[in-house]
Amino acid sequence: MKKLNVTLLLLLSLHAPAFAQYADQPKNQWQQYFEQIADYDDIEDNNMEDMYERLCELEASPINLNTATADDLKQLSFLNSTQIEELTEYLDRYRPLQSMGELSMLQTLDPVRLNMLQCFVFIGNEKKDKQFPDVKDILKYGKHELVATASIPFYERKGDRSGYLGYQYKHWMRYTFKFGRYVQAGITGAQDAGEPFFANGNNMGYDHYAYYAIVRKLGCLKTLALGQYKVRLGMGLIMNTGFALGKTTSLVFSSPTNNISPNASRSDAYYLQGTAATIALGKHTDITAFASYRKIDATLNDDGSIRTLLHTGYHRTISEIRRKHNSAQWTTGAAIRWQNYGLHLGANTIYTTYNRELHPNTSQLFRLYDPKGKSFYNGSIDYGFINSWLNINGETALNNEGAIATINSISLKACSSLTLTAIQRFYSYRYYSLFSSSFSDGGKVQNESGIYLGAKWSPLSRLSILAYSDYAYFPWARYTASKTSHSWDNMLQTTYTISRRLTLSTRYRLRIRQQDYNDAETTKKKILINKTEHRARLSLAYNGKHFNAKTQIDGAYAVFPSGMQGLENSCGGMIMQTIGYNHDAITVAVNVGYFNTQDYNSRIYAYERSTLYSFNFPMYYGEGMRGALFVRGSVGNRLIIIGKVGTTKYFDRDVISSSYQQINSSWKTDMDLQVKWKF
Predict the structure, then answer these.
(1) Beta strands in 520-622 (DSSP E)
(2) pLDDT of amino acid 10
(3) From 475's CA, which of 115, 415, 560, 594 has a CA 20 to 30 Å away?
(4) What residue numbers bound the domain in which 337 lies?
């Protein structure tokens, strides 16, 4: 074994220039890669923000490859299932690792992910703890972390003058206690701008609190969660309160599996509250069970039934506060999973009941098959097979009305440079689950059938190509489409490493989606017509040892129906320049951009670095300029101070936004301050 490791190191030394290209990249390199795969549909659904926060947590608590278990490696969500399987087999065979360079021997690990992996793992002592640590050791050697963040606007909104019950500042605090990967506990308090703080009926201070305690690896008890937590079963057809994979991320990230994770989110939605546990019944079989009771926000009908379940979490006005926690939700569920020799098979079930009946407004045709009643249950089976070249996953589910939903995927490593992916889904328009979140074009696990074909190809050592084509069919009415409709989505992305420091990326997306259009002959007749969107991006990035820079150009062109006036065109673009400096305890980043779009239909998204645990991908439309300054400093190994100032100047308006969010100015400037203390 030792001789083999020495041989591997000698081989790596012969290829040192190839590996050195990625060995000295800065730790935040993963954020730039994350930006490349961020899709604007995922951004609007808050999937990417949740995933970004988890990766930030993982960066703060990296995994020791010499002691990592298969369950530990599954936290590396930026690796697909095939890569995790190969990494697990490699570690079992060749541990202890002596150098990160040994990972370059993995055939499925491309250079970008090899670079990204180094941000979340380390090579440490191979000694494993034989039993769960003593409580005294946990209390004595556990690590504490306190994060405080405040956002200060240098403007006044209409609601700040009259309408909102609180002040205009947004702030949150988070305390976390960790002992290795055995124990984790924490509490988060979050306050949105405009929400009352110890005032106007809010006696608890922060508007939202997230609290949890997680214990792992306690004998046969693999995971125990108390407080608030998130659960993901199978591929998410009946239960997924965490992030779901988008179309681009499906090519580069792993498929969901059974998982319990703590909820430290600042969002007052998409979590469970109570207890959850995963127990190992044997070497190859796990059972997961959970129970939850929590208060939720809802709009009510005159008879006291629930019209709409709310997920915004805003409690700024009298009407929003009246809807706060005015209903209650009970949820319980269980799952059993077997896996061996690359095969896995699972059975899952959940049951949910409310203290009020659900009565949606079915006069809107697209809401006709929304869940109705008081109690709901779903069941599913998930299945799959994984080895070094083939990855098959699937799940089939039923709801209490007998409606079906199924999703099946296959990923084939055709050769060392080409991976092909296909995803099929069929979601009946009568199917629903109150906690489902999975791959889709319409944003829901309901009323959709489709086929997705994708490929990841590296024809040259320095060139990587991602491409997909996705066709979706909607058999029932949906929002903006009053009858059967369809969509077609296509994307092509290339990344070329010009030199050790310089990378050129391109991206083009074509999306065609049907929506309602009023016929010019009569206003009573609606027909479907295509809305076509073209989006393109060109970026050139330089990543040096201390300096980094990026020039990015975005363009958008949309053709869409516009009532009685026929088709309209909308085009726009944005150019942004980012320059950064990173040395020892100080990091500075500056970005300046100019945007000019005709309207919202040609809006542009551009990533902007922000404070910890905040994924900032703002949207721009109209004409204006954007500038931001980011500064991060470390005081020793325990204290981190972050400041950011960003301003947007509009040239085409004197009023920004509308209603209570209206700002009577063409300028919008904000400052974010954050302190992170480890003790």
Answers:
(1) 526-543, 547-561, 567-583, 586-597, 604-605, 619-620
(2) 38
(3) 560
(4) 292-497
